[in-house]
Amino acid sequence: MSVLKPKNSFNTNKRRFVAQKEFTDRELPKETFLRNLNELTLDILNEEEKFKVLVYYGIGGIGKTSLKNKLKNIILDDSLTKTVALEVDFREVRSRECSNGLLDLYNSLKQNKKYNKTIFPHFELAYAIYFKKKNPDIIYNEREEGVIKFVDLGLKVFGFINIADFGLSAFLTKEGINKAYSKFKGLKLNNEMKDNIIDFGSKSISNMEEDLILYFAYDLNNTFKNKHNLKTVIFIDTFEALFGIETHELKKIAKTEWVQQLILNLPNVLFVITGRDKISWDKKWEPFIDQHLISELAPEYSHQFLEKCGVEEVDIQKKIVDYSGGHPYYLDLSVDTYFSIKNENRQPVVDDFGTTKKEILDRFVTSLNDNEVELLKVMSIPNYYNNDIFKYLIEQFNISYSATKFDTFNQYSFVNFNESLQRFTLHQLMRSGMQEYIKEHTDSRVFPTFIETANEKLLTLFEEKYKDDKKSNIFECVYHRLRIRETSDTGTFFEWLNQEKLDFMKNLQLYGDTVLLSNMFEQIRNKYTISLFSVELFNIYEDIVHLSGNYKESVELAEMYLERFSKDEILSNHKLIKLKYRIIHHKMFFVNADDLINELKILHNEVSKEHFFVEHCEITYMLGGGVGFLTGKLDDYKDYLNSLVESIESYPLINKELNNIRTRAIRKLVDYYRIKGETKLAEEMLQKTLDIKNLNRYQIYLCCSYAEVQRELKNYTEAIKYFELVMKETKNLGIKGWQAHSYLSLANVYLDLRELVKAKEYLNDAFVIYESIDQKWGIVNSNILHARILIVEQDEEYLAILDKVQPIAEKFSYRYELQLINTLKQTKEIGLQKLLYV
After folding, report:
1. Greatest CA separation found in the chain?
2. What are the φ/ψ torsions at residue 589 (nearest 5 degrees)?
3. For 119-144, b where at least 16 C-beta lie within 10 A, e where not — what string?
4. Which residues pair with 54 in a beta bridge?
5. Which of 17, 110, 333, 719 could form a disulfide with 711 if both were Cys (CB 3.0 to 4.6 A apart)?
């Protein structure tokens, strides 16, 4: 239940009756929190590093956010606890990304007057460098909006800089960082961190995002724990929103990776997580997680709560308790109804209160006057609001309610507030309930309906905001445009999306903003089928699906999408040709390789090299390396790769796409020479092609081949370094297959070193992912590696493992792996297991 302040009604008259609400029947959660806080104190005093995660979970509206606010206020109100509180709410889409989530945590320090001037200087510098690299189109100087955007992000470090004299762009370079260290003493920068910050800008976006956690943790520890011996509590609310519509447990865990890494970098910090579901992380986390179910209030506590609110009549209390079921949201709403009636100079009676959850809302609405009802209706439409949106909607709907009563409206129990983002939201139960109320009380024949009109006005508002800040407002634009009826005047949703937003969505895809894109596509697919997607839009969507490891789903979606096109239409459109060979590419993880070769040869002959050179090159690559090598017939398909590289290098207009195909072909040739024992030749090819400073997806894959070469040359330190780099990059990008490849490769290295415990750990990590995405190549190679470990341990069970996996390799025509299996069976010589990555 919320921290309940005296509340005013919507009535413009001065209220005579208010509810004095108090936090009721949450003593056990409070005691658990204080116990954990006390344990944290002892751990710090004893210099014992421990991880502490306290989880409160329960159904929507049960009072989890209110509990979080109560616990946070215990810290803020009591200076004796010597505790700092930070918070982030995953209800906000942007906050679910690592970089934004960290920034929200940092900016939440503003809530505490004692620490609101605190600066995390190294985190701010790192974030500024990261933001500049991720948003290269923003210009930074004393006259440009980019500077204002930085200030709006809450980065206090720029208050130390005279932008006109110094120049922000210069500040974010090596020379600028050196000047900052020498000139701005007030920043209290640590010289030991200077080299790290200078090197930070040369890293890839995904590595920078991962390292932001390190800078955040460094500054937090240095500012609070190490210098002032303060305890820190980090509150994370609406945790289930982090997963969106994802239901697969492994993929849900992957989305929590940055939260787990934050916890691991902050021992002796108490993390308090609130959400709908119990957390299910790896068993290694179990000793550190304390989970508690938040349920409905028991009848005696519900009565106690009503009495403390000022609802004294026993018969009214009984009806409210009986029909609310002890659910805090409906108890709150019934109390709101009670005092709205009293402020209308009428004594509440039993019949004023509903007997169902719908009636409870209806009775509350009935207790309001017409203007109050209109205001509540319109405020149920936006996802969030602030003072500007509040005023805008009052003006647009000509509601006789003073915009100065913004604070009065926000005192209602169903209003939530995100302090770090300074945004208000109505409780989801109130929003959905009011929208159903609107539909029941509106003539559906009237066009546009009240809800459509409100969405049109909000779209107009967010389109204006989008001009200045695309990323922060594109979701709201899409959300409200989806809720406007399509007419000849408005056009279709997809006409609007393709014309107005598609280019920026491509930009989000390029920079890896998959969280925001996934949430937008979730909204779109709730209303429309993929058959209505343009080819470009579908390619963005399908890319997100397949990179998450959902290969079969990706293939099914693409095949279903292509059904509406004839063969001639497909072969005369480069976007559709691309989609056609992507289907074959994604099938390679679960379909027989020989069958796929036949499909590719047909397509290779059908696609005109003259008119579709890029697409023809892509198909040639698939024939030579993508699927061709998967069959194990390396010599048969190597010529495709050689001719492909020559063809691209002699082409007069080499663009980024062709360069990426060339990189992929060279990776396959490197693998060919590795397998054939010509390791030095493979290494020479890598030296000419590998560009570690510009790690796009295909350069990351090339790093894996480079690491494998180093492993075969017994340069194990270098091999581990690059396999770990691939692991980090692919994990951040959500590329499940290659993440598993990096684990499998590391297991191979540690088997070479006879560090069997580590080898088994990495092998298990790889196998779990391969199983979850049903990648047959990975499953086969994981089992081969498992058998090799058992041979080293002199465990005869290795034969059973090989017997189990051999039929799979035969079924999918993995001849190279079949050769490895037979060699192991016949000789028990474990060899190197040179991986032929797919």
Report:
1. 94
2. -85, -10
3. bbbbbbbbbbbbbbbbeeeeebeeee
4. 272, 290
5. 719
